[in-house]
Each structure stands twice: as structure tokens, then as C-alpha cells.
Design goal:
The complex is a heterodimer of chains A (227) and B (10).
Chain A: H1 3-26, H2 34-47, H3 51-59, H4 68-92, H5 109-121, H6 128-142, H7 145-154, E1 156-157, H8 159-185, H9 192-204, H10 206-218, E2 223-224
Antiparallel strand pairs in A: 1-2
Chain B: no helix or strand
Classes of the chains: A mainly alpha (227), B little secondary structure (10).
Chain lengths: 227, 10
């Protein structure tokens, strides 16, 4: 565990809290893409199926392979799952009337189908768990596309929404640094599937980061895109 | 070490 990895995880965790705080404080989820949030629940669900493995080890008192890192990962995985499901739940219950569904027009099959095909072809091992893990990595890389499309459609984002997007994009950028660090310091560390997907994911945020920093520098509350 | 494949990240 290096400083980049832990910062990335905390930034990711912060993104959930920023979004939940925004929704609770303003009683609105305006400007937030439900489709992106739904994709994140799918991403975490497919990726963290190994939680059952950890659960299995715990209820059989098989603690030999449970390390501090396992406990940290397990704790964070449960938090990420709970937070993403809670966000989707809020957007479909008490905040449904404020949801930007009419402008959230991205067709999810356009990312789901290619990710599924890629996961079936390019994976480390042709097993169900491994394919679902790979699918989640590919899907996470592009899951922000409905959100970006909504942002372009709207032309601007309020302060908390843009902080949220910065946290989501920034976390993967920090993971890139973490991978470089691990590649340099750990003799056999290699995970090209995550590296390529992580690079694509970070690159998708490129424009957004630019406008975010322009906004921060100019001290505006809202992030405005050029028309 | 053969294929070193890490699922130790989030």
C-alpha cells in the first residue's frame, strides 16, 4: 500500500460522500446521471464478488489468508457497494422528481455490449469470476460517459457536482501513479487490463479536468462549458 | 512466479 493508492481510495470514498451530501443538502439530484450511477452499482457488484470468498473464509474460521490488506479491502468494498446502491436508491425514490432523466439520453447498451465482448476476449483467465472482474474494469472506464453527456447537454454543473466528478476522475488518475510506482517497486507486478482501462478512464476526464481547473482558478461556483 | 495477477486493489 503506497501513498498514491491510499489517496486514490480516500478520494474515491470522498466522491460518494460529496454526492450523497449534495443530494441530501439540496434535496435534488439535478445534473447527476442516473445511468452513470447505475453503471457504478453494476461495476462494484461484478468486481467485488470475491467478498463471498472472504465471507466464506471468515465463517469457516480460516483466517490464515486474511491479512490487514484483506480487511482494508473488504471494509472499503462494502462501503463502496453500500454507497453506490444508496445513491441509486435515493435517485429512484425520494429524489426521483428532481432527476434529469429527460436529458440523460445515453444508450447504455453502447457501452455494456462492447465491454461484455471485450471481457470475454481479453481476460487473464476464462472463469466466471475473472470475466466479471474484467467486465467491471472495462465498464468502469466508460461508465462516466452518460454523466459527461449530461454535463455537455446541460452546459454547466453546480459546485458540488463538479467536485464530485473531480473526485471520481482524480481517483483513477492517482491509481495510474500507483501502478507506475508498484511496477517500479514490486518485481512481478503487472496488470495490463487495469492499466489500459485506467488510462482510458482518466483520459475521458481530460476535458472535464481542464474546465474544472479553469473554474477553480476563476473562483466561480458553477462550472460552465463553452457554448 | 508465473502470471502475477493482482486483485488486491479496489
Amino acid at each position: 500500500m503506497n501513498i498514491f493508492r491510499i489517496s486514490a481510495d480516500l478520494l474515491h470514498l470522498a466522491s460518494f460522500f460529496i454526492l450523497i451530501f449534495k443530494m441530501k443538502a439540496t434535496k435534488s439530484c439535478k445534473g447527476i446521471s442516473f445511468k452513470t450511477q447505475l453503471m457504478y452499482t453494476l461495476v462494484f457488484t461484478c468486481r467485488y464478488l470475491d467478498l463471498f470468498h472472504v465471507l466464506g473464509m471468515m465463517i469457516t474460521f480460516n483466517f490464515a489468508h486474511i491479512t490487514g490488506l484483506t480487511l482494508y479491502n473488504t471494509f472499503m468494498k462494502i462501503l463502496f457497494l453500500a454507497a453506490s446502491y444508496y445513491i441509486v436508491y435515493l435517485m429512484r425514490t425520494e429524489l426521483k422528481s428532481t432527476s434529469d432523466d429527460a436529458r440523460d439520453t445515453f444508450v447504455l447498451w453502447h457501452i455494456l455490449a462492447p465491454c461484455a465482448v471485450l471481457a470475454l476476449i481479453f481476460n487473464a483467465q476464462f472463469t466466471i469470476l475473472e470475466i466479471l472482474w474484467t467486465f467491471s474494469i472495462y465498464l468502469e472506464a466508460v461508465a462516466v460517459m452518460p454523466q459527461l453527456m449530461l454535463l455537455i447537454e446541460t452546459g454547466e454543473a453546480d459546485s458540488l457536482s463538479s467536485h464530485y466528478m473531480f473526485a471520481v476522475g482524480g481517483y483513477r488518475a492517482l491509481y495510474l501513479v500507483n501502478w507506475v510506482y508498484r511496477y517500479a517497486t514490486e518485481p512481478y507486478y503487472s496488470n495490463w487490463i487495469a492499466w489500459i482501462a485506467g488510462f482510458v478512464q482518466t483520459a475521458l476526464f481530460g476535458d472535464f479536468f481542464y474546465y474544472y481547473f479553469v473554474k477553480i482558478m476563476s473562483g466561480d461556483a458553477a462550472l460552465k462549458l463553452p457554448t | 512466479p508465473g502470471v502475477i495477477y493482482t486483485h488486491d486493489e479496489l
